[in-house]
Amino acid sequence: MITKKVKIGIIGTGNIGTDLLIKIQRSKILECGIFSGQNSNSEGIKRAKQIGIPTSSLSIKAIEDNPECCEIVFDATSAEAHEIHAPILRKLKKYTIDMTPSRIGKMCIPSINLEECLKEHEVNMVSCGGQAT
Fold this sequence. Notes:
- The chain is an alpha/beta fold.
- It contains six helices and seven strands; from the N terminus they run βαβαβαβαββαβα.
- It has helices spanning about 15-25, 45-50, 60-65, 80-90, 110-115, 130; strands at about 5-10, 30-35, 55, 70-75, 95-100, 105, 120-125.
- The protein has a seven-stranded parallel β-sheet with strand order 3-2-1-4-5-7-6, sandwiched between helices.
- Helix 1 packs parallel to helix 2 (about 45-50).
- The longest helix has 13 residues, at about 80-90.
């Protein structure tokens, strides 16, 4: 049975975003529809281009301009940037996984409250330890 993969977007092409991109590449159910940051010459953008992932240096604007590029957005930028991104993603009706320490959205610790977090439109991964889990 062939199942259509769920398209995700990643905002933030630094270490956390790039690590997430590599993990998504191994997923049987997720695929990256956009990998977007602010620096078109970042190592993350270069790596994504090498493996054929659509990239942009327009950050969240890439998703605003092409909302069908993804259903789920991982924000791997900064807490300050996520304060700007959160209302835009809410307006676009994107399920958002906040990888920043912004504390916006339901705090998610997958081994404790994953089921209730799936009912939210935005979750926050709490900390680097929470993200690793």
